[in-house]
Design a protein that fits this description.
The complex is a heterodimer of chains A (113) and B (117).
Chain A: E1 10-14, E2 19-24, E3 32-38, E4 45-51, E5 56-58, E6 62-67, E7 72-77, E8 86-93, E9 102-103, E10 107-112
Parallel strand pairs in A: 1-10
Antiparallel strand pairs in A: 2-7, 3-4, 3-8, 5-6, 6-7, 8-9, 8-10
Chain B: E1 4-7, E2 10-13, E3 19-25, E4 32-38, E5 44-51, E6 57-58, E7 67-73, E8 76-81, E9 90-97, E10 106-108, E11 112-116
Parallel strand pairs in B: 2-11
Antiparallel strand pairs in B: 1-3, 3-8, 4-5, 4-9, 5-6, 7-8, 9-10, 9-11
Classes of the chains: A mainly beta (113), B mainly beta (117).
Chain lengths: 113, 117
């Protein structure tokens, strides 16, 4: 389950600020994690992934941090833009197990100009 | 690359009719596809796992006779909602797992909005 106080259902930031979205995952055996972005009325869009043998991975304007000790995942978005406004989901899986992703509850990011 | 399409994107039907939703991986092969359902302001709920050439695996509480899944090829899975009722109205999303070594990335379709009157 989710750690109390760790997951925020909504996050409001100003354009240009950095955003940090947190997620607590549930399965200690999970070794593959993905962040998805979902805009209203659309399917989830892959943002970035990370395997459990890493604790940080960077993409374009995004960074994912993994803390296996406390089963915590975070997504950092640099210089947040209005187009980043969406719902962000973390998902976990056991790599190559052929099983479906387990999704977190989602955080709605609102970026104001 | 890694594009997944769904058809139709939106469908309105009368109660009691059946609706078929197609999920296609356009530029990659996917032995395994997944069907999800999403209610407003909620997360994705896994309904079933679709495997090419074999029967789908349904999650607990999902009626297999109501939600028929057929994974006819490595690029196509279909979900048929039979005898649809208003409570079946939802956003249905499929995902496809790319048949590639050392990856479990799933790519999602754009979703199908089903409204049952």
């Amino acid at each position: 389950g989710e750690s109390v106080g760790l997951h925020l259902p909504t996050l409001s930031v100003q354009e240009g600020d950095n955003s940090i979205i947190n997620c607590a995952y549930s399965n200690s055996a999970s070794d593959y994690f993905i962040w998805y972005k979902q805009e209203s009325g659309k399917g989830p869009q892959f943002i970035i992934d990370i395997r459990s043998n890493m604790d940080k991975r960077q993409g374009q304007r995004v960074t994912v941090l993994l803390n296996k000790t406390v089963k915590h995942l975070s997504l950092q978005i640099a210089a947040t833009q209005p187009g980043d406004s969406a719902v962000y989901f973390c998902a976990e899986n056991i790599n190559q197990a052929g099983t479906a992703l387990i999704f977190g509850k989602g955080t709605t990011l609102s970026v104001s100009s | 690359g890694a594009v997944v399409s769904q058809h139709p994107s939106r469908v309105i039907c009368k109660s009691g009719t059946s609706v078929k939703i197609e999920c296609r991986s356009l530029d990659f092969q996917a032995t395994t596809m997944f069907w999800y359902r999403q209610f407003p302001k909620q997360s994705l709920m896994l309904m079933a796992t679709s495997n090419e050439g074999s029967k789908a695996t349904y999650e607990q509480g999902v009626e297999k006779d109501k939600f028929l899944i057929n994974h006819a090829s490595l690029t196509l899975s279909t979900l048929t909602v039979t005898s649809a009722h208003p409570e079946d109205s939802s956003f249905y999303i499929c995902s496809a797992r790319w048949d590639r070594v050392n990856t479990d990335t799933q790519y999602f379709g754009p979703g199908t909005r089903l409204t049952v009157l």
